[in-house]
Specification:
The chain has 2 domains: 5-275, Hypothetical protein af1432 (Orthogonal Bundle); 344-458, Alpha-Beta Plaits, CATH 3.30.70.1370. The protein has 22 helices and 9 strands. It has helices at residues 20-26, 29-32, 54-72, 82-87, 94-107, 120-123, 130-138, 141-149, 156-174, 187-197, 203-216, 225-230, 255-273, 276-296, 305-309, 313-325, 332-339, 352-357, 361-373, 404-407, 409-412, 429-446; strands spanning 5-10, 14-19, 232-236, 246-251, 345-349, 378-383, 393-395, 401-403, 419-424. Helix 14 packs antiparallel against helix 17 (332-339). The relative contact order is 0.11.
C-alpha cells in the first residue's frame, strides 16, 4: 500500500513531513535537480563540510513555512485586532493556502544557476535572474502538471506570487513576463509571501542561516527559531501614521529571538558568506564561466527550461577539471586556480579608519596597484553598505503595538553589511604587500582617483 504521509530525516529540523501530493512535486525533475546545486557555491574549499545542496534547504524552507502558517492561523492568534481578522480568508480556505505556501517554499529556488548566485548577474541575458527562471519553471512541464493534479488544484500564479513576492512580481509584469493582475497582492497574499521571502522573518533566511552554520561548522548562524516562530503574529503597524496595514511581527517574548536572528545574519555574512577567500573563488569561477560559456553557449546561460534543467554544478565542475588539465583551453587559468587552490591573495580590505579619511580608499588602492603591477594581476570585489535597520511591529505585554526600532536597542546597533577586497596574484603578493605598506597613506590621502585605462573591477 502506497504511503500517504512521508517523513524525511533532516539535520536541522529532525523531520520534514509531506503528503503524497507534495511528494510528487519533490520527485519532479526541477526540484530533484537541486540535489546537484551547492547551497554555498565553492565555500567547501574554505569550510570542507559546506557541501550541502539547494534541495536540503528547499525542504527546510517548506517545513518552516508550514510551521509559521500553523502558528499564525491559530484561533487565538487571529483575534489580536479586528483589522487582522478582516484581512484573513475564511478558515475553510486555509488548507488551500497552506499547501500553496509550502509548494512555493519548496520550489522557490528551482531557477538557480549552477553554483547558485556566484555568476548570475553577469551570465544571464538582460532582464533575467533566478526568480524569472523560477516563474518560468513553475508554469511549465512537470510542475504545471503537479498543480493540476492536486486536490484541490493549485493555481500556478498563487505559487509564483508567494515564492517571489510583490516587488519581483511587479518587475516581471513590467517586463511582460506575468499578467498585470500578478502585481495585485491582497493583504493576505502579501503576508504569505513575507513568510517565505520577508526581510525580517522570511523562513528562507531562517533555514539558510541555521543550515549553513551547521554545515560550515560555525556557531554564528544559530538562534532560537522555535521560540521565534511560536511568537510570530500578524500585527497592524498602528504606530506608523495611524496605518492599520498588517505585517509579520512578534510578541514581546520573542523579541530577543528576533534580535538573535538578525545578529546571526550579520555574523554569517561577515564571517562566512563574505569571507575573502570565498569571494575570490567566486571571481575565479565567474572568470571560468565567462570563457566556457563563450566557447560553448554564446556567452550566457540558457533560459529555456529544458536547457536550464540539464545544467548543474556537476557539468560545470567536469568542465573546470577538463580545462585545468589542458593548457590553452577556454578558461584554463581560472580553472587551474580553482582545482590547484592557487587563488589570488588578499592585498587590502576596507578599514573604518581609512574610510574616515577617504570613502573610496579601496578603489584608490586598487587603481594604484593596477598602475604598478598591471590589471591582469589584480581583482577587486565589493559591496557598499546600504539600507537602514529592519522595522517590524512588536506586541507588548500590555497589548500595545510598537516599532521594533523603539523597543529594541540591539537592532538599532547592528551595522550595515559591507565589504571591499583588493586581491593580487600569488607571485606578486609579497612584492605588492611591501609596496602597499610603503605607499598606502599617500594613496589614500592624495592619489588622483581616475581608473587606469583598460581596467575594470571584478
Amino acid at each position: 500500500m502506497k504511503k500517504r504521509h512521508h517523513e524525511i530525516r533532516d539535520p536541522i529540523h529532525t523531520f520534514v513531513r509531506l503528503d503524497s501530493q507534495e511528494r510528487t512535486v519533490l520527485d519532479s525533475a526541477p526540484v530533484q535537480r537541486l540535489r546537484h546545486i551547492h547551497q554555498l557555491a565553492m565555500s567547501h574549499l574554505i569550510y570542507p563540510g559546506a557541501t550541502h545542496s539547494r534541495l536540503e534547504h528547499s525542504l527546510g524552507v517548506m517545513e518552516l513555512a508550514g510551521r509559521v502558517f500553523d502558528v499564525l492561523t491559530k484561533d487565538e492568534n487571529r483575534s489580536i485586532r479586528p483589522s487582522i481578522r478582516d484581512c484573513l480568508p475564511p478558515p475553510e480556505e486555509f488548507p488551500y493556502w497552506r499547501q500553496a505556501l509550502r509548494m512555493a517554499a519548496l520550489c522557490h529556488d528551482v531557477g538557480h544557476l549552477p553554483f547558485s548566485h556566484a555568476a548570475e548577474r553577469d551570465l544571464l541575458p538582460d532582464g533575467w535572474d533566478h526568480e524569472r527562471l523560477t516563474v518560468q519553471i513553475v508554469q511549465q512541464g512537470d510542475l504545471a502538471k503537479s498543480w493540476e493534479q492536486m486536490t484541490p488544484p493549485l493555481r500556478d500564479l498563487d505559487i509564483i506570487k508567494l515564492a517571489v513576492g510583490p516587488k519581483k512580481c511587479a518587475a516581471l509584469v513590467k517586463l511582460g513576463v506575468l499578467p498585470t493582475d500578478a502585481r495585485d497582492f491582497s493583504t493576505w497574499e502579501t503576508i504569505l509571501a513575507e513568510i517565505i521571502v520577508g526581510d525580517a522573518f522570511g523562513v528562507d533566511r531562517m533555514d539558510y542561516l541555521l543550515r549553513d552554520s551547521h554545515h560550515a561548522g560555525v556557531a554564528y548562524g544559530r538562534f532560537d527559531h522555535y521560540r521565534l516562530i511560536d511568537t510570530l503574529r500578524i500585527l497592524p503597524k498602528e504606530y506608523e501614521d495611524g496605518s492599520q496595514e498588517p505585517a509579520l511581527g512578534v510578541e514581546a517574548g520573542g523579541l530577543h529571538s528576533a534580535e538573535s536572528l538578525l545578529l546571526a545574519r550579520y555574523l554569517m555574512y561577515t564571517q562566512v558568506y563574505f569571507h575573502p577567500i570565498r569571494k575570490i573563488y567566486d571571481i575565479h569561477l565567474k572568470d571560468f564561466l565567462c570563457e566556457w560559456l563563450k566557447d560553448q553557449r554564446g556567452g550566457k546561460f540558457p533560459t529555456a527550461v529544458d536547457e536550464h534543467l540539464t545544467l548543474t554544478d556537476n557539468e560545470v565542475m567536469a568542465a573546470i577539471l577538463n580545462a585545468s588539465r589542458t593548457a590553452g583551453s577556454p578558461g584554463h587559468d581560472p580553472a587551474r586556480r580553482i582545482t590547484k587552490r592557487d587563488h589570488f591573495h588578499l592585498l587590502y580590505q576596507r578599514h573604518p579608519g581609512d574610510l574616515r579619511r577617504n570613502p573610496d580608499a579601496a578603489r584608490d588602492i586598487f587603481n594604484a596597484a593596477c598602475n604598478e603591477f598591471g590589471r591582469d594581476y589584480l581583482r577587486r570585489d565589493h559591496r557598499e553598505a546600504k539600507g537602514e535597520g529592519l522595522d517590524f511591529p512588536v506586541l507588548t505585554d500590555d497589548n500595545r503595538i510598537v516599532s521594533s526600532r523603539v523597543e529594541s536597542e540591539v537592532l538599532a546597533g547592528i551595522p550595515p553589511i559591507a565589504f571591499d577586497y583588493v586581491y593580487v596574484e600569488g607571485t606578486k603578493h609579497e612584492e605588492a604587500r611591501k609596496w602597499l605598506k610603503d605607499n598606502q597613506d599617500e594613496i589614500i590621502d592624495k592619489l588622483d582617483k581616475e581608473v587606469p585605462d583598460g581596467s575594470m573591477e571584478a
